[in-house]
Structure formats: structure tokens, C-alpha cells
TrEMBL record:
Molecular functions per Gene Ontology: kinase activity
Functional description taken from the UniProt entry: Involved in the regulation of the intracellular balance of NAD and NADP, and is a key enzyme in the biosynthesis of NADP. Catalyzes specifically the phosphorylation on 2'-hydroxyl of the adenosine moiety of NAD to yield NADP.
InterPro entries: ATP-NAD_kinase_N (IPR017438), ATP-NAD_kinase_PpnK-typ_C (IPR017437), NAD/diacylglycerol_kinase_sf (IPR016064), NADK (IPR002504)
Family: Belongs to the NAD kinase family.
Cofactor entry: a divalent metal cation
Subcellular location: Cytoplasm
Keywords: ATP-binding, Cytoplasm, Kinase, NAD, NADP, Nucleotide-binding, Transferase
Active-site residues per Swiss-Prot or TrEMBL entry: 69 (proton acceptor)
Entry EC number(s): 2.7.1.23
Top-rank EC class of the record's enzyme: transferase
UniProt protein name: NAD kinase
Residues that bind NAD(+): 69-70, 138-139, 166, 168, 203
Pfam families noted in UniProt: NAD_kinase, NAD_kinase_C
Length: 309
């Protein structure tokens, strides 16, 4: 049997020493190997093999993302040409993609090695940004520079013009990304189980003023019009083009572009329900009780029982 190699994707600034140590010790005991991007070699033990950034996903059997949703998105993008299962270890704040907490990591690694997990398939936006090919698992956004006017762009769908936007920002998101920038701009929450593309203007001044939901099979073209303010283009929150004043962004939807490891899909869904309650979707009291640890839940349930007569 070929030796299993796992690739590490690290949060760019957080201290990952403890989590990497747990993984490195476990891998050594199980006669596997670890790889990391060469730029991160100073953050990991010497037993972890440094590789060029574009080779980690290509040469590993699975990836371990250590951080929050941003790190997870980066891991998914790195493997988009040959999707590999990605296990997310949580060091972030309000994460919707990551599942495993550091104390649960040894058991999670055992299940990963034994292929005792299910795969959650994620779609992405394949984008042509003024001639450059990029992918986004959350969203692609055209954002005005402060004090310089507004984003002014036309919307084309399958070659037909549908209108124009004049706004602070224009966000194109996947269902997964509907809880991120699109939601902050006033867009709808879309089930991650659906296939759709959401276009949401932020602070619209004229033109289309509400979210538009399109089929995943439609080809989208957003073209800056003469007189538009200089626009930054963001991919999953990362600036990939700054101060563009002309050009177009073309977007197509790509299914099954990312594979996320799920160890307990039901529990993960319950946790996400709680996170969604922080986004103005409040839960019922009995739903909140179900999200408590078992021991504490039993105590709460006992206190909630009516007194005997």
C-alpha cells in the first residue's frame, strides 16, 4: 500500500504550533508523511516536507486546513484542478465550513486515515477577470474605492443585456457564500444544498437594486461602463485586481469543485443552525437545548420539567 501523505494549509498569522504538533506526532506514529508549502516551513517541525505551493494539493491524498473559513477556502482553491478531501480544524471565530476542534483532532485523523467520513461537495465560481482565470468558493466582488464614486456595471446573462448597477459593491456568490459578503450586503441566505448564483448590489444608488438569483447553467457577464469609479476585484475576500476602470468579469458555475470532509454531518448542521441564529434566524428554545453538551443538556431538561403534583 502506498504511504499516505497529508498536506497542511496554515492560517497566515495565527499560532498553529500546538495543532501542527498534534498532527505531526500522530502522523509519525502511523507511518504517514506530511507536506506544507515551502513558505511555511519555518512554522512546522523539520519532519514536515516543504513543497512548492502548487504541488502540495497535487501530491497529497488529503489536506488539513488549520484556521477558519478563509484558510479552508484557500485549501479548496488550491485543489480545484484535482479536488482532494479537506479536513478543517477550527482556530477561527464564526466559521461555517470548518468542523473539528483541536481536542477532537486525534480521533478525526483516525477516521480520515480509515476513510470513515462523508464528503460534502462544494461548487465554485469560475471567473474570467479581465483575462485572468480565477476561482471563488464564496464570492467574487467588484468594490469601489472609498471616495471615488460608484461601481457602474452592466449585467449580461447568456449574451443578453438585463440592466445595470450603480452601487458601492457588486457581489456574486455561491450558495455557500450567501452567508458572507452577499448577506452583509442584504442578500438572501441560500441553502448550501442548492445550485444557484446570487448577485447582490451593496448600497445601490440606481439600476438594479435587489438581489438576482440565477441558474447555475447561465453565463454571467458584468462589464464596467465608461465613467465607473476605479474598482477593486475581490475573490473570497482577497484583492486580485486593484483600481480597474474598464473590463469585464465573466462568471460560470462549476459543480463539485471542492470536497469537504464531514465526520458528523448532523452535529455539524446543528452547529451551523446556531451560527445562523446569530444572523437573525433565531432558534426555538428546544433547538438551543439540543446544541448543548449532553451532560449540560440533561441538567437543563431536568430543570425545565414541570413540578410533580
Amino acid at each position: 500500500m502506498d504511504r499516505i501523505r497529508l498536506g497542511l494549509m496554515l492560517h497566515p498569522t495565527r499560532d498553529v504550533t500546538e495543532v501542527v504538533g498534534i498532527i505531526a506526532d500522530w502522523v509519525a506514529r502511523h507511518r504517514m508523511s506530511l507536506a506544507v508549502r515551502a513558505a511555511d516551513r519555518h512554522r512546522v517541525p523539520a519532519t514536515v516536507e516543504p513543497l512548492p505551493a502548487d504541488e502540495v494539493a497535487a501530491t497529497c491524498d488529503a489536506l488539513i486546513s488549520i484556521g477558519g473559513d478563509g484558510t479552508m477556502l484557500g485549501a479548496l482553491r488550491s485543489a480545484v484542478r484535482d479536488p482532494k478531501p479537506v479536513l478543517g480544524v477550527h482556530l477561527g471565530r464564526l466559521g461555517f465550513l470548518v468542523e473539528v476542534e483541536p481536542p477532537d483532532l486525534p480521533a478525526a485523523l483516525e477516521r480520515l486515515a480509515n476513510k470513515d467520513f462523508v464528503v460534502e461537495r462544494h461548487s465554485c465560481l469560475a471567473c474570467d477577470v479581465c483575462g485572468d482565470d480565477v476561482v471563488a468558493f464564496n464570492d467574487i466582488a467588484l468594490v469601489r474605492q472609498p471616495g471615488s464614486g460608484f461601481v457602474t456595471a452592466t449585467l449580461g446573462v447568456d449574451g443578453q443585456q438585463y440592466g445595470y448597477y450603480r452601487c458601492d459593491a457588486l457581489v456574486v456568490s455561491t450558495p455557500t457564500g450567501s452567508t458572507a459578503y452577499s448577506y452583509a450586503a442584504g442578500g438572501p441566505l441560500v441553502s448550501p444544498a442548492s445550485d444557484a448564483v446570487v448577485i447582490t448590489p451593496s448600497a445601490p444608488m440606481a439600476g438594479i437594486s435587489r438581489s438576482v438569483i440565477l441558474s447555475p447553467d447561465e453565463h454571467i457577464r458584468l462589464e464596467l461602463t465608461p465613467g465607473s469609479a476605479p474598482v477593486a476585484v475581490e475573490m473570497d475576500g482577497l484583492v486580485i485586481r486593484d483600481a480597474a476602470t474598464e473590463g469585464a468579469v465573466e462568471v460560470t458555475y462549476r459543480r463539485d469543485a471542492g470536497l469537504v470532509v464531514r465526520l458528523d454531518p448532523r452535529r455539524y448542521q446543528e452547529r451551523n443552525q446556531l451560527k445562523l441564529s446569530l444572523l437573525d434566524l433565531p432558534l426555538l428554545p428546544e433547538q438551543l437545548r439540543e446544541l448543548l453538551p449532553e451532560g449540560l443538556r440533561e441538567q437543563v431538561n431536568r430543570r425545565a420539567l414541570p413540578p410533580m403534583r
